[in-house]
Amino acid sequence: MSGTVEPGNRAGDPVGDGTRAVRAGLPDPVPYEPALPGPVFAAHFHLPGEPTGPYTYGRDENPTWTRLEQAVGELEAPGENVETVAFASGMAAVSAVLFSQLRSGDAVVLPDDGYQALPLVREQLRTYGVEVRTAPTGGDAQLGLLDGARLLWIESPSNPGLDVCDIRRLARAAHAAGALVAVDNTLATPLGQRPLQLGADFSVASDTKGTTGHGDLLLGHVTCLDAELAAAVRRWRKVVGAIPGPMEAWLAHRSLATVQLRADRQCANALALAEALRRRAEAGDPRDVRTVRYPGLPSDPSYPTASRQMRRHGCVVSFTLPDRAHAERFLSALTLVDDATSFGGVRSTAERRGRWGGDAVPEGFIRFSAGIEDTDDLVTDVLRALDKAAG
């Protein structure tokens, strides 16, 4: 992928992704003041008379959050009147949607192949009397569980298996059944997919990953078109106190300026790597790569749906090596890639996902996050490590 926006991405947009990213959330220019004001560190604010705001107490609002939330909203749904709520982590954002919307006796539909922490959320929901139904992401299998549900939770592409579902189709069916729709957009980021424009009520993400992209902060957000839904999410943040620090919010806003540049290089690297891995898998050597998944690979089963709804296919490639020992030899042989559990950063990372025990993946399953290294260098390093592991 080139550094320009893909054909069709500009439809209805006055500017491209890169232009929007560097301007998003900036205040009107003030002579002799910085373009992006520094973080505001304040537990309280001067508050004469009645507390009419906008800033009253540091657990409720902060000017640094406001600018970040405005910026993220502009990326999530350009030209739309949306509300974004920033959180201390992606899981804080996930929890805010689920626990602000669900009550005892409600039913929720979750993916059974989603993020590793979702099983912990399922257990907690059940203790509160919420009926939890699960189905795989692939094949739009969640469609069969919507009757009487209060909320449908979608994760597409799924992490770490990279299955994709038809968000528009699921959102239409869920709304027809009276259910709200939330999409975990962490892996795609707003640069790769816009869930609200696909029919979702909530777009949720861990901004720890690709949105901020430097692997140095924890953050999350929820964006809604409906002000009442956003108010419920914001109220939950106030109740549990899962607020971002001003410094983290400022760093995140600063990082957004490069999100398009990072996303384009990461996606280009991921596709090049996926193609190289596919060739090795097709060679059929039982001592080498066995399966490869990447939504941007034309041979991938998710490619037709992903190409309809995704604007970029993401930085994560998943592949399977013969066994645990083989995978660990491969990881040890890499020189340009960190063995780490996150993804979406400027430095490539990879891990044997089965080491955590929570994902239904083979022992030799590798989740690889392509960074922004030179493509040839990265692919060469991976192929050399595979040769060494197989030798």
UniProtKB/TrEMBL annotation:
Which of the seven top EC classes does this enzyme belong to?
A: lyase
Give the matching InterPro entries: Cys/Met-Metab_PyrdxlP-dep_enz (IPR000277), PyrdxlP-dep_Trfase (IPR015424), PyrdxlP-dep_Trfase_major (IPR015421), PyrdxlP-dep_Trfase_small (IPR015422)
Residue ranges of region Disordered? 1-29
Keywords carried by this UniProt record: Lyase, Pyridoxal phosphate
Q: Does the keyword DNA repair apply?
A: no
Its cofactor is:
pyridoxal 5'-phosphate
Under the heading Pfam families, the entry gives: Cys_Met_Meta_PP
User: Its Enzyme Commission number?
Assistant: 4.4.1.1
One of the entry's Gene Ontology molecular-function terms is:
lyase activity
Task: Please state which protein family the record places this protein in.
Answer: Belongs to the trans-sulfuration enzymes family.
NCBIfam families for the chain:
PRK07582.1 (NF005758)
Name of protein? Cystathionine gamma-lyase
